[in-house]
Design goal:
The chain is mostly helical and about 200 residues long. It is about 50% helix and about 0% strand.
């Protein structure tokens, strides 16, 4: 933590600590930083003025890195985080299968597959790939251009859906999720009874 001996930054940093350098000057922290930043700083336990900085591995009692501890982290920390993410995210297998079973041309199958895979060159994806800097929709200039926006939420897209006489969801608005909207469109025949003239 300390900078070069006697430097101005070294002096400023030590003002954030009290006494022997093992406790934070909480009053000063609260004056200088937001509550979130203060919380993050307080989570760091300073070793004191007379201790040099060193590396420590938090998954062993000694603080030393071992292959055994890395294996434990892989199974018990990273593996558990991945499992919880998989549970939170819905399975798209059903949608993929529904798309490939559609009675339509291969080009439509491929296009919908690219949509489901988030592989269209919309502004949001181009910014993510550092190809452009502007996420705004090039048609309406009112919102970020995502696949969902281009196909469902953009005023131009909504006009196309209205002309196509496709029933929109009961709320009167397309969802913020592309997957929900695509599922609604693919299941039109099941949800909306056939209209008779």
């Amino acid at each position: 933590m300390p900078g070069p001996a006697g430097s101005e930054s070294d002096h400023w940093q030590w003002n954030l600590l009290c006494g022997n350098g093992r406790e934070w000057n909480e009053g000063l922290l609260e004056q200088l930083f937001t509550d979130d930043t203060c919380g993050q700083i307080k989570a760091i336990h300073p070793a004191g003025r007379n201790c040099a900085d060193s590396y420590s591995w938090e998954y062993t009692k000694t603080g030393h890195y071992t292959v055994k501890s890395v294996y434990w982290v892989q199974i018990n920390v990273i593996g558990v985080e991945k499992e919880s993410q998989e549970v939170l995210q819905p399975s798209l297998d059903g949608l993929y299968q529904q798309v490939w079973r559609l009675n339509t041309s291969p080009k439509i199958h491929y296009f919908l597959w690219r949509c489901l895979s988030n592989a269209l060159p919309v502004a949001e994806n181009m910014v993510h790939r550092h190809i452009t800097k502007d996420k705004r929709c090039s048609r309406c200039d009112a919102a970020e251009e995502s696949i969902n926006h281009v196909l469902f939420q953009c005023p131009y897209a909504r006009l196309v859906w209205a002309v196509a006489q496709v029933h929109i969801p009961p709320s009167g608005l397309w969802a913020d999720s592309f997957f929900s909207n695509l599922q609604w469109v693919l299941n039109q025949k099941k949800r909306v009874p056939k209209e008779t003239n």
